[in-house]
Model the fold of this input.
Amino acid sequence: MTIRATLFTTATASLMLLSITSAAVLSQTVQASENTAVVIDQQSFSCIRDMTPVRHFYVDNLLGNLDGTLAVANAPEGAKYPTGTVIQLVPTEVMVKREPGTSPATGDWEFFELEVDEQGSTIAKRGFTDVNNRFGGNCFACHLPARDKWDFVCESDHGCEPIPIDHSMTGALQRSDPRCGEPALESGDSMALFKLKAMVTIGAVMQWFKDIF
Ligand code: HEC
Done:
């Protein structure tokens, strides 16, 4: 064998070894993250803007697999989010992807309704098919139409009924999350928050009306 051929063979062999090793490391990492329990308490949630923005919402991964979460969030045809994924559109509502098999009905998503203030987050409600938000709407039922293709993530065009809160309002809520310190409001945010407040008041009045009659 010529020296050049020997060098080439050695280089190829080490490259192969390298890729085998990295594949093994990768599969170990994936396995580790799939087997690790996702421990969630109120410390798990903080300033929404410290998470990673995707379009108009924020994502994170409690097991450190942010790349896996981002890959799915940006998959044009949708996919299943990896264990540990956290998604938030507004400061008070969170979806967390639990360990495989935890809740087949919800695709292993656990839904959370939080109370947030300058001190941090308190978990008001958590669960799977039975969590309602502060307006009495069931998280699971609303997100169900997006189940098959988009793993329960509604966005604007994944088949869920649209909500009356638009992205100027969700953006204003993100920029005024009390857990982040001073609000970082942009022009138009005050008006968006004002409209939102008015809608919530009208909603509350209607509920009161319904309760009486
Ligand atoms: C009335 C129906 C409805 C209810 C009730 C509801 N959601 Fe949603 N949710 C939606 C829709 C529709 C979107 C997408 C809004 C958009 O971006 O235009 C959404 C967006 C989200 C998002 C951002 C990712 C996504 O799916 O687009 C999260 C996270 C979320 N909701 C969590 C919750 C949680 C947690 C609850 C219960 C505490 C809840 N939702 C209750 C309809 C609902």
Notes: Residues 42-163 form one domain. The longest strand covers residues 109-117.
